[in-house]
Amino acid sequence: xNQTISRYLQGQVVEEEMELTLIELCDACDAxxxxxxxxxxxxxxxxxxxxxxxxxxxxxxxxRARLALRLTRDLEINPAGVALALDLLDEIAALETQLxxxxxx
Length: 105
What we know:
By secondary structure, the protein is mostly helical. Helix content is 65%, strand content 4%. The protein has a two-stranded antiparallel sheet.
């Protein structure tokens, strides 16, 4: 197993500069390649590269894939619903950041 992946699985912080292949991402979040491919097609994950064998995912994609997997497995949400839920969570986080900035000024 890739040393970067094994460090993450041991609980260390993942940095955005980190790059994972499709296989490494699948191993790290325990998801099948077909599931990751569906998430890419739905816009849940945005890899660098054109073809699956060229895809590279940043560290944030690992956290996003794990959350997508929880929504899929635990709540039985379909891929389009996962994409919508994650987009809404992103918007909430952005609004919270704006509120924090405003409250400190």
